[in-house]
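Our consortium's second objective concerns turning raw sequence data into structural hypotheses that experimental partners can test. To show how far this objective has progressed, the report includes one record in full. It was chosen at random from the queue rather than selected for favorable results. The single chain below, 156 residues long, was entered without modification.
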Amino acid sequence: MDYEKYLEEIKSYIKKSSKKQRVLAVFVLITILAAVVFAINPEKKLLERRNSQRRSDVANILNSVYQYSIDHSGELPESITTQPTVICKSNALSCDGLVDISEITDDEKYLLSKVPVDPKEKNANSSGYQIHKLTNGRISVSAPLAENNAVISLSK
C-alpha cells in the first residue's frame, strides 16, 4: 500500500466517524501524551543530573584536600576552619569570608585544576560547596544547594 492511498483511507475513516468518536480519539491521544511526558519528567532528570554532579564535585574536592594534607604532614590550608564555610571559586575577585584552596588547585599533582562550582550557584566568588575540619581531625565537604532534599556530604 502506498503512502497516498493510506492517507486517503485515514481521511475516509475520519469522515465516517461520529463527532463523539473523534472527541474520544483526541482525548485518548492527549492522555497518552500526558502519560509519556510524566514518565519522562525532564525536570526531574535535570535535578538528578545536577545532584549527581554535586556528588562527584564533593568527592573530588574531598580527595584533593585529603591528598594535600597527606603530602603536607597532616596540615590543611590555613583557611579551612572548624566552621562550615563556602569554598572560594578559582579566579574569584575576592575570597573574603570564604575558604581559599588555590594552593591545592594551583598544584598539578592534585585532582582539581580548578574549584568546581555548584550548578545553581549565582555568587561570583562562591563555589557553592562548603568545607570544614571536624573535631576528630577529619575533613568534611558538603553541597548545601543540593535539590529535592538530598543531603550531599562526605568526610574523610
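The partners drew two points from this record. The chain is about 45% helix and 10% strand. The two ends are 68 Å apart (CA to CA). Both points have been shared with the crystallography group to help prioritize constructs.
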